[in-house]
Amino acid sequence: VGNVILTTGYKTFDPNRIPQYGYGRLANVFTSVEFERMVNASGPTAGKILLRDRTHEPKSVAIIHCVGSRDENFNEYCSRVCCMYSLKFAHLVRERLPEAEVYNFYIDVRAAGKRYEEFYHRVMKEGANFIRGRVAEVTDVARTLDEEGKLVVQAFDTLFGAQRRIPVDMVILSVGME
Known about the structure:
Blueprint: E1 29-31, H1 32-39, E2 60-67, H2 82-96, E3 101-106, H3 116-125, E4 129-132, E5 135-139, E6 151-157, E7 162-168, E8 170-175
Parallel strand pairs: 1-8, 2-3, 2-8, 3-4
Antiparallel strand pairs: 5-6, 6-7
């Protein structure tokens, strides 16, 4: 035998398995794969970050880390790439839409590769917001006037010890790999 090739495959986690995140029900909830395709120059929006109506840019974006990973109900393991592509998405939103607010909802950030930690700090310096805590729900039910017409991300912020409701225009689900 001259060569042996061992290849493993994967599929992305199906976010429909977590209905409280609103994927497939709320128009402006995207998977990481959909967002990656959108920001690609040869994608459906020619690289522009747009809501599903393909005419409006979001003024605020929430990125939910670890969707389907590090969860005893689905996959207990870490997919090892979600943190970094989530940080890349935050960077791209801040770069292409400088006025947009970006919120990263995370358990912890695993940036273990060469220069990954520096990139994490760069994204923080660029103005991305980081909220430590698992998201409980994404809803379109408004409780206040500033939530009207928005998606509302509900999470318990473990650093502040308080429940948070963050109104945003777009939600990106950073789905894990199976």
